[in-house]
Amino acid sequence: MAGLAVDTMRVALIGGSGQLGTEIRRRWTDDEIVAPPHAEIDIEDAAAVAAMLDAVKPDAVVNCAAFHNVDRCEAEPGRAFAVNAVAVDRVAHLCDERSTAFVTISTDYVFDGASARPYVETDRPAPLSAYGVSKLAGELLALRLRSRALVVRTCGVYGVRPSASKGYTFVDRVIAQARAGEPIRIVNDVTASPTFAGDLALAIRFLLERRASGLYHAANAGPVTWHAFAVEALRQAGIAYPVEPIPAASWKAPARRPAFSALDSGKLRALGFDMPGWREGIEAYLYALGLAAVPGEE
Ligand SMILES: NC(=O)c1ccc[n+]([C@@H]2O[C@H](COP(=O)([O-])OP(=O)(O)OC[C@H]3O[C@@H](n4cnc5c(N)ncnc54)[C@H](OP(=O)(O)O)[C@@H]3O)[C@@H](O)[C@H]2O)c1
């Protein structure tokens, strides 16, 4: 990542209107960020991306775009590969040719869930879904180049601007269901590291500042089941409401998902950035939504 200005950067953000992209735009306040909407720049259109890079001349390109509807990827593996692997490869090449830093985001779904402890970067990936395979392919394609991209794996992202493909976050949904008096049933045998997009955005900025390259995990700390996560989100939102634990087997979905996919961000911590715990992630999220007091105060 030669030539990267760290105090203030010019950044080309692809997928900047999504959960993570929104937090990057909100939090990288010292940087100049150019974030054309999807309608203007499709990551699959290499000529358009090249023209943008030549016009903007960014210090870094951050790719937050993905086809990450896991069940749709299972039905459309060609599209999953086109967006999550082939397009990533092309943008990585364009950055390589221009000596521009390149960051792309990957997923806990590259793992099969057989681990008994949170996954570290050196653990062997073994994806169970077409989505996971396509994201792993994107990682390997980006990392093989001489300039070495930065690949940041994360997990269960939620942010103030919900993913357009869903329209709400997991936390929003449990709060809305409780307020509507609907039954809430959440799996208690699937463990992950749900991650607030605001924390992830700061971690990526830190890695860029440190000129990091290669593979890093960045997820809110501490494995948690989705059931325990929902219970804590309601508690922090000040809503007393029952959450029924259910087994994942009762939730029929086309794509297989890992039962355990918590990520260990120790490599990032060793560099000097401590990802907050999952409870702090909920706190920061509810605060950003105006649903909670100042983080750290109850
Ligand atoms: N969400 C999760 O739980 C999760 C978990 C692990 C890893 N990740 C990874 O984290 C990254 C960011 O996820 P996110 O939750 O921020 O996603 P998101 O909210 O769905 O945002 C994705 C962004 O990419 C844009 N986009 C989609 N396809 C595009 C294309 N072909 N060309 C250009 N832009 C395109 C979308 O624009 P439109 O909405 O206008 O199409 C949107 O701005 C992704 O790489 C994802 O795989 C996510």
Question: How would you describe the overall organization of this protein?
Answer:
The chain is of the alpha/beta class and 298 residues long. The chain has helices at 19-27, 46-56, 70-75, 77-98, 130-143, 170-179, 197-209, 226-236, 266-271, 278-288, and strands spanning 10-14, 32-34, 60-63, 101-107, 150-154, 157-158, 185-187, 191-192, 195-196, 214-217, 224-225, 244-246. It has a domain at 10-161 and 193-222 and 257-277: Rossmann fold (3-Layer(aba) Sandwich), CATH 3.40.50. It has ten helices and twelve strands. The strands form four sheets. It has a six-stranded parallel sheet, with helices on both faces. A two-stranded parallel ribbon has the order 6-9. The protein has a two-stranded parallel sheet with strand order 7-12. Helix 5 (130-143) links the parallel strand 4 (101-107) and strand 5. Helix 1 crosses helix 7 (197-209), helix 2 runs parallel beside helix 4 and helix 4 (77-98) runs parallel beside helix 5 (130-143). NADP nicotinamide-adenine-dinucleotide phosphate is lined by residues 14-15, 17-21, 38, 41-44, 64-66, 68, 83, 105, 107, 154-157, 163-165. NADP nicotinamide-adenine-dinucleotide phosphate binds at residues 14-15, 17-21, 38, 41-44, 64-66, 68, 83, 105, 107, 154-157, 163-165.
SSE arrangement:
Layout (H helix, E strand, L loop, with lengths): L9 E5 L4 H9 L4 E3 L11 H11 L3 E4 L6 H6 L1 H22 L2 E7 L22 H14 L6 E5 L2 E2 L11 H10 L5 E3 L3 E2 L2 E2 H13 L4 E4 L6 E2 H11 L7 E3 L19 H6 L6 H11 L10
Parallel strand pairs: 1-2, 1-3, 3-4, 4-5, 5-10, 6-9, 7-12
Antiparallel strand pairs: 8-11
Helix pairs in contact: 1-7, 2-4, 4-5, 8-10
Bound molecules: NADP nicotinamide-adenine-dinucleotide phosphate.
